[in-house]
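User: Show me sequence and structure for the first protein, then do the same for the second.

Assistant: Starting with the first protein.
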Amino acid sequence: MISNLHPENYTNGPFNQIAKSFLDSINRGVTYCDIALDIQNQLESHNLSLESLIEKLTIRTQYVRQFRCLLGFCHQYIKECFDPIKAFEAYEVASDNGYSYGHLFLGICFETEFAVEKDPERAFKLYRMSANDGNGHAQYRLARCYHHGIGTTVDMEKSLEWFLRSAESGHLGAQNNVGCFYKSGLGTRQNSVKAFYWYQTAAMAGLPCAQFNLAECFREAQGTKKDYKRALYWYKKAAAGDDLNAKIQLANLENEKVIKKERKIDHTFI
């Protein structure tokens, strides 16, 4: 029997590897643009065309639900085969067949008004169905709904509850957000040590915004000892990942160095 979340009968064929990698990336909260790029890179590494992937996904029936979601994703996020109607139809078939990722992506369509009229309440219900099935990314999207009042009322305690479930499943964005909740005391008591733990978890896994937040912890002695060298290290890591806040902070720190140097020279001169 095929698992609702993770196909148990994947072979080592390239198309199956791409499908498995796709689901793993969704679970970790990798950006959709990066996932689309990874799909194309994997095709290139196997000397396969995007057209061959689309054809394979369209006719494959053994894992219809899993492959339907990957097909929909390709039609939504890869420019060369962009087709909103086909993407929505693929997600809808997967959702109608009770597939967790089908609920997830169909919910995203209703939330973002992609190929369908915007319906936040419908999106919320679909996210909740998928989240209750253990889908980490759906748990993240559901937490966002409670945080921002999307299709439901704002509830910070429930938002933290679902972010925490998602974080524990390995979702990087959720891990960073749990850190933010603990640092700010949203939906719970403020706890800088727990904030530091979750920032560090996501930062070590490579999430730039978490790397910036971790650097701030080291600079401000939040949940850990003050350590300027480690703060600088993580600011640089975050900036290398194109985090704007980290780039600004590095520039500010460099300006502080210049000012201190000028002051020292002035003082010596006097």
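Switching to the second protein now.
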Amino acid sequence: MGIPLDEASLLALFFETLFYGVFLTLYCLTLYVLLKNAGSNRQLLVPVATVLLCLATAHLIVDFVRILEAFVFNAGKMSANAYYSNLAAPLELAKTVLYVTQTVLADCVLVWRCYVLNHRSLFIAVPGLIVLCTNAVTGYIIVWSLSQANSSSTVFTTAHSWITTFFTLTMITSVTCTSVIAWRIYRTRRFMSDGFAVYLPILIVIVESGAIYATGVLSILLAYLSGSNGQYTVLDAVSPIMGIVFCLTILQVHFQVGGKQVGGRQIGGKSHMSRSLEPRGVTDSSESEVYAMWTGA
């Protein structure tokens, strides 16, 4: 087990609060950027960012309440370890539902970006939807399994295969979509004489599209498979990290590559990156669509 369950929960709350503060700051900046744009995609990005924030906030509140119950309100009735070991507790189930919902929403955004960036190809949409639906069903089966757990059950013996499948599918979604997006950008950028700058969009997209998030999910999976309570610490931290990655995607495109000059002229609201995402001969409307997908312009 390594770290005790109560210590893992305290450490988890610390990191979750830390990353939540980062997420809240980035959310405010992202909202400012999105509200400046008048594009139709803003109507999608603003609600998604807001829902991610609401889910992360609810998750943090639940963790604060659980800490108070474990170490203050129920201190004389049971130990903190005994409190956190109750997998069927209502707050534990609520916390799990929030995490599963947030994960599915974050993966939906990633698949959507991959789908739009690849000209709305059904070869991207169909497999993506299948994996998303499978992962959503798996996540809520985990919630049901935890609700049936008894006092002697642990998270490592309850729904082990379902939990492993859930995090594995999340990893597959993140890594696959990020790789497809990176390859799409590289394939269109390799014909341009930009020197080292040819690698910059790839690096940006990898960071924006979930490399940090994928690393967090991988850490959860490895900790879970090794039977370590450290998985609770990483899992709670990943909740706000989902929102951080989403906001960084928008902010990096807007502040780093948005509105730069190409060939000595300003590309209006579009960036050099957005123009490089399409093969030569593409229309301006297509380029605008790609850039709007990232920033809501």
